[in-house]
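Posted in: Structural Biology > Protein-Ligand Complexes

Title: Requesting predicted complex, S-adenosylmethionine in pocket

I'd be grateful if someone could produce the 3D structure tokens for the following input. Sequence and ligand are given below.
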Amino acid sequence: MFNVTLVQPNFQTGPKHLNSYYLPYSVGSLWSYLIQNQQIKDNYQVDNWIFRREELQSVVNRCKNTDIVFISLYIWNKNYCLMLGKVLKEAYPNIKIILGGPELPHRNPNFLKENDYIDSIVIGEGELAVLEILTAYLDKKPLEQVYEFDRIQDLNLPSPYTLGLFDDLIKQHPDIEWVPTLETDRGCPYSCTFCDWGSATASKMYKLYDERILADLKWVADNKLPYLALTSSNFGIFKDRDIMIADMIVATNKQTGFPSGISVSYAKNSNDTVLEIVKKFIEVNIQTGLTLSLQTTTEEVLENIKRKNMKINSIDEIIGSAKEKNVPALTELILGMPGETVETWKATLEQILINEIPTLDVYFLQLLVNSPMYVKQIQEYDLKTFYAYDFFYGVQNEKFEYDKKHKISESIEVIKSTNTISENEMEDVAVFTAFILGLHMFGISNIISTYLYQTQNKSYIEFYTQLYDHLKQNDIVLNGWLDQLKTGLQDWKKTGYMETTIDNVFIEGWKFFHSIMPIIQNNNLVEHYINVVGDFSKQFVTQDIIDDYIKISNLQIKQFESYIHDSVHVTVKSNLFPANLIISDRYGDYLDKKEDHLDMLFFGRRRGWHLNKISLDK
Ligand code: B12
Ligand SMILES: C[S@@+](CC[C@H](N)C(=O)[O-])C[C@H]1O[C@@H](n2cnc3c(N)ncnc32)[C@H](O)[C@@H]1O
Ligand code: SF4
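-- Reply #1 --
Done. Output follows.
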């Protein structure tokens, strides 16, 4: 019998207190495919599953009987994995090291020369290649250096879940809340230049079988796993089928309570179907929202990144229908795209605010090694980048020093300037964006800015620019935070690590845009800043409006130790709202530790955890 070690290491994911890890689904899928072959089943067994960043020496010790190692490379584990391959080969010169996965830098002509401990790499889907590799090994034939097969069209693939491949892992780690992924299809017909959807973009989508999907869902529920990530690039694109899958998820949730939260990437040209699906999820309280992955609203930029002519770009229309159906929407934007300027970025923010999209996620543009942008657009748009290390060390940053010392720290290449936005402009507009997010999306000022827009046609960007300038001049504390955020950004670019602690809140690079509210809440300043915005707004509205705004905003923001257990009735004295209000906690979950609360402000934001629910008291 030959021994195979399967390596797909992840960082801990989600809120710290949950101790969550993704199941090593990709290598699990390869194994479930392989053991359909009797010869392979009779001659090979799994020696070890490496699902997290164990110390290299511990993995080396565990691999003393291993013959072949399959390693799955992603942006979040590449350096660890490459070092692991190297030290394994040093320890056991006969071991075979096989690499695959989306982060494989196969376009680099020197990759194999520079990493001569690698026996083979597999480009794209791995199933057919690993079968060929294990068969060749059994037949004592030499392995090829590079394997690349046509995509599998008939995805009649066995599932690692229902074959029980993860059962032992789950038993051995009762302290872990595992996160499964549900594969419903592969591929994506679009070719957005910043993306590399498993190297299967600009390609036909092929479907996995319905029976398998249903069985996988049952497995998720049987194992009581609360959170499920769908891997589809365009869920809802196959109208009837995807609605059927949504119905399956809903039915499983109704029967068992699982899964209770999902992450989904929705179809871009099927607004009605997507809305129907999201509505179904929300009706059974599955925590999700309508994610509008807009990235930008600037026409020219959409053209540059090949995302024009998608129906989601008609925001008014889709948001209108979402509101009609009472489906909350959230949107994702990317700062620093080719062609974006400070003005066009602000215009994009204005669009999002006008449409009252409750949650906004902003990312700095990242260069993924196999994306069309990496391959073709760097020179054209003069994309300048730096390496950011702290995207992954958020939940366990003490590990960073260890990884740095051992040359296995992971990073993402992030854009710092382009030919249409300078470094300095990017810093300033990023801080301004963090300011808007912190105040508007987290509930300090949204009620008053929306009122001003609706009744006085005051543009949001105008309001926030005035407020920003006012606070920068008159509020030493907030001004200090904004300066520290900017310095944090500058340090981030120099060292790759945003080592900024602002008033006792540690700011990690990836949380940059969402950092102001945790700082405000950690310092018990919610009420203070609502009053500050109230004072500033007195120049535009009456005192009655201000009084109502202050009272309601205070209740709207979910604050530690001021949780709303029973709904609160609010009498409204001005025309800020058309009727009296009832304010209640959206989820009824109350945390014991402030640290966990601050964590949830970030992780719960996409489902509106951070804001209490306001309804009209009819
Ligand atoms: C689920 C998911 C997540 C989950 C985490 C998943 C996990 N840790 O396991 C969450 C939501 C947390 C996530 C987050 C992020 N993700 Co993500 N995610 C995915 C997603 C949607 C599905 C992955 C999956 O299971 N696919 C199904 C499996 C079967 O496909 P596969 O992994 O490609 O495996 C096949 C082949 O690659 C190959 N293969 C894989 N491994 C191996 C190994 C060997 C030996 C061989 C031979 C073959 C082989 O064979 C497999 C079967 O055919 C993919 C997109 C996609 N659909 O693939 C993006 C994707 C992997 N994510 C991506 C990115 C960029 C991110 C983020 C960095 C985004 C961000 N800006 O912050 C974060 C960071 C994550 C972190 N750890 O901190 C990129 C990765 C690019 C890269 N070069 O690694 C992808 C490809 C999407 C994209 N935007 O282009 N992600
Ligand atoms: C998992 S991706 C979903 C992609 C989705 N299929 C789409 O069409 O947008 C989630 C979000 O991550 C962000 N993202 C994806 N690639 C990125 C990149 N290269 N740089 C920065 N952010 C990125 C985008 O805002 C994207 O909407
Ligand atoms: S961003 Fe989404 S739609 Fe665009 S290529 Fe990637 S997966 Fe496809």
